[in-house]
Amino acid sequence: MNDPHSLISSPATNASCSHNNKCLIEVSGEGTVSAAPDKTIIVLGATTENISLAAAQKENAAIITNVVNAMMKLGIPKENIQTITYNIDTQYNYEDGKQTFRGYKVTHLLQISIPSVNQTGLILDTAVQNGANSVTSIQFMVGQPDAYYNQALTLAIRNGQQKAMTIAKSFGVTLDRTPNQVQEVARGHEPSPYPISLMAKSEATPIQPGELKISAAVRIVYSFS
């Protein structure tokens, strides 16, 4: 039998014995599950420019009002439409080292929560048809992410257990059935939004939500003899 006092050590696994003969195996476990998204969050809105601030604001407000009304006609509740950005910027031209006032830019972005991914393309097209000229991100999500994360966590624990058993078997030692420690390794399980280019099309914009990958990771410490 190999000497358990000199087993292995790596970033993913570690096995050692302390001076008081307490022998430990530390492993990492990972698990991933796939989930079909069932909701979408879109950030879109309007940017307008004019030498008159009042005119830029008026044009912008008209566009946003049209977009909001159009969303509500599609069945999106008003509480699912929220302003997340409203900016007024002064615009300048620079020529020959001189700064010349050009006008104002007004940006108003809405966050729209859509209860069905199937409406995503329709929402985008309808917003553009009603004057939206900025779409900054689309985020596909699942309504119950914790349920999928718990599945991934179970797989991560099983993965760590299998690693520990393999190590113990390879060195001819006996692994304790109950781990000394199980630590969840924090990691985000919500997908990040991705940017989208805004292009006017004569046909419905095809949006493919695909599947989301939800992952979990753990660190497990076992005793062995």
From TrEMBL:
Gene3D superfamilies: Protein of unknown function (DUF541), domain 1, Protein of unknown function (DUF541), domain 2
Top-rank lineage group of the source organism: Bacteria
Protein name: Uncharacterized protein YggE
